[in-house]
Amino acid sequence: MGSDSAIVQAARVSYGKGTKQINQDEALIKYLMRHHHTTPFEMCEIKFHVKLPIFIARQWIRHRTANVNEYSGRYSILDNEFYIPEQVAKQSDNNKQGSGEAFDSSTSKEIIDSLINDSNLVYSHYEKFIEQGLAREIARTNLTLNYYTQFYWKIDLHNLLHFLRLRADQHAQYEIRVYAEVMLDIVKKWVPLAYNAFIEYSLKSACISKTGLEIIRKLIKGENVAREESGIGKREWNELMSILGK
Amino acid sequence: MGSDSAIVQAARVSYGKGTKQINQDEALIKYLMRHHHTTPFEMCEIKFHVKLPIFIARQWIRHRTANVNEYSGRYSILDNEFYIPEQVAKQSDNNKQGSGEAFDSSTSKEIIDSLINDSNLVYSHYEKFIEQGLAREIARTNLTLNYYTQFYWKIDLHNLLHFLRLRADQHAQYEIRVYAEVMLDIVKKWVPLAYNAFIEYSLKSACISKTGLEIIRKLIKGENVAREESGIGKREWNELMSILGK
Amino acid sequence: MGSDSAIVQAARVSYGKGTKQINQDEALIKYLMRHHHTTPFEMCEIKFHVKLPIFIARQWIRHRTANVNEYSGRYSILDNEFYIPEQVAKQSDNNKQGSGEAFDSSTSKEIIDSLINDSNLVYSHYEKFIEQGLAREIARTNLTLNYYTQFYWKIDLHNLLHFLRLRADQHAQYEIRVYAEVMLDIVKKWVPLAYNAFIEYSLKSACISKTGLEIIRKLIKGENVAREESGIGKREWNELMSILGK
Amino acid sequence: MGSDSAIVQAARVSYGKGTKQINQDEALIKYLMRHHHTTPFEMCEIKFHVKLPIFIARQWIRHRTANVNEYSGRYSILDNEFYIPEQVAKQSDNNKQGSGEAFDSSTSKEIIDSLINDSNLVYSHYEKFIEQGLAREIARTNLTLNYYTQFYWKIDLHNLLHFLRLRADQHAQYEIRVYAEVMLDIVKKWVPLAYNAFIEYSLKSACISKTGLEIIRKLIKGENVAREESGIGKREWNELMSILGK
Q: Which GO terms describe its molecular function (chains A, B, C, D) (predicted)?
């Protein structure tokens, strides 16, 4: 529902004659994105049918501004489909929430086999419970978090872009990032002008703190800035330097 | 966006094999409405372009689940269009928020003329302010609440029905009720099965309190129930008797 | 945050002089609940710290109007704590989503032992994964849905009562109903007047459909009504008769 | 409801052992704000009682995440209180939505007198309508947008900070900015650590676009960047240079 022109149409009602000067749609959409005038982007709406592992569904559902209809294990029998990573990685040291370097191939195989075995085992018992007539709402509690669920998920473009900004980020778990990347492609085809503005002013932008801006001003003047005197911590400093290409 | 079949499609994903028995769309939609399974109705979305007086826009906007882009008096010049009721009514005695009986025709004319005069007067000064170059954001504060604004208003079907239940109600102000009635007609054409279920289980239904249900049970048994012994107040009693056709 | 008097205070601002007549707090709160004037109830807010199995957390989180901070298996190691029902029941025949009659004791024991064994098994592998240094975000996917998580959950009173109406209902899963019942007790102590109004006008009330009301009117007049001629289905008829104590 | 320590408490549940390293509350709150981990800030809640002109209430109410109870002109009689600016300014040329330079004192006086006269006039007719017994819901439509209303407004800290970021901004209308500034002082006293983090990472921060970051990287290297070759428009360029102190 909606398109780039629905965004423009809503903006021209909101800002009326004030938008006459910006006579090209592309420039207007960029202007809206740049100034966080988010409501015109809410005029577009999209519905996805998503199949995804339960542990990813649990992250996904935290975005509260969407409409959701999820497959229910109370009413229905879950299929024997579960997610196993193609390769497994170690807990990252410096990024508390992410994955780090790869395992050697024999440990990797051992872990993956163990994941597969347990998934098969719990499903075989789930099936047996169902045959015995156990209430589905209890039988399903024996399944592991890598089992697939599915839902219809409907959201407006503004909130979708907010979701994609967080979930296409490198700090997001790999398994949700791959969904975000596919959805970014869909957005690109659906609303190309909004997509470009999103890349420029949101996804590839950076928010620089008050102190960060002061440092940048000094650096541009050619002054030296020492991390220790800057008033910001080591990790934040490294992030800033990485943004500045230093 | 969406239709009766989108509701059915979402419900069948949610409730899966549990919905196989209800093989007709109409019966399924009635079942969903009756049991307050509201999420499938959220799969339909509609956008209205509404022109309405500011005092009505202020009531309307209190429904927080919609997406809105309103004409802005900060950016644009408001048109010389205002709302005047065709006939004016007295403050109701027993309904604290509503309108009661009509005025005699001469008082009615006097009031309506006064409303028109003031509307014209404040607009002539507004126009003069704009000519003088006064900031629009201040100039508009001289307009009365009956001036027209407009917005795009986008909402999902579940929340639209909730809006219509409240605003098509006889306790709603007449001036918003006429909008609600037009919107009800649109819903009827758009999603006829959902509309019928809404009329049956929501708009024309009644919520009966715990004590009200006890009274009904006695009445059905043929017992007499005195208001004084029922434990409920006079006004609530009258409402209950009116629902029961007594 | 807030109390019965905060509800009253907000209502008196909203409805101003219109509420002067209702000079007792109890009557005013009943009036607000009866007429679905819900915003004054939003002035009270409560925060719970809840420990609950993941399959219940997944139902709980669908209520989108709350603020939530949940324990994260990406950052932290989950404890070896899982939920096992004290007794297991068969899938209900007439209630598609619920539990029905109990198993004989030997089948019951067999099922419960199987649930316990699998829970212990997947945790032992989870622990091994963590020791091997596997990324936590993947290791946790091997846990079953009966493992405990925890969250802070903060919500306003109006939305809490809506949650409790749905989750204290007999159609809700037993495992979430026990939480709802404890929370009802807390509400009773916190805002006793709002609690009483909620029981009378919401939890123990019934919404009667348009056709249902017509049937009730006939029954009160002493007329006979045959199910077949009533225009409503068998299940709906039975529910109505049960409400009417027939 | 809540304090800096409620934010910390919620974050420590969410991120569990992952937050042990950050053992000081101040550093943790900064970390959360910097990384847009917004949910812990939702654990604090505040209620304001605000008296404000209707045209400001209309902007304010667009923030949909708050709970509101507003004084109703349908139930109650509005007081004879209206807002008149101390000094009036011309429509800004380069800021389409704002106020620009001041008028000469005689034009200023003329405009202000006109605003006062109209406000008094419409109220005198409003009073007369009420005396005649006109329904309040119609009588109030004769009042101008500068008349005062009031509401209770309750919101969580995360959404309050979002409101303050937009409304304490120089692009916001002066008349709402003065409210935002008073509220910022209240936040400072209530949750001083969150306030400081907000100033550093949000209010005084700047989001730099993809192209903007490329320009900064060149400037830091001592390269010259011409606006015409930069790929960004004149207004955006000026804003960037202003941020960079050039």
A: flavin adenine dinucleotide binding; NADPH binding; thymidylate synthase (FAD) activity; thymidylate synthase activity
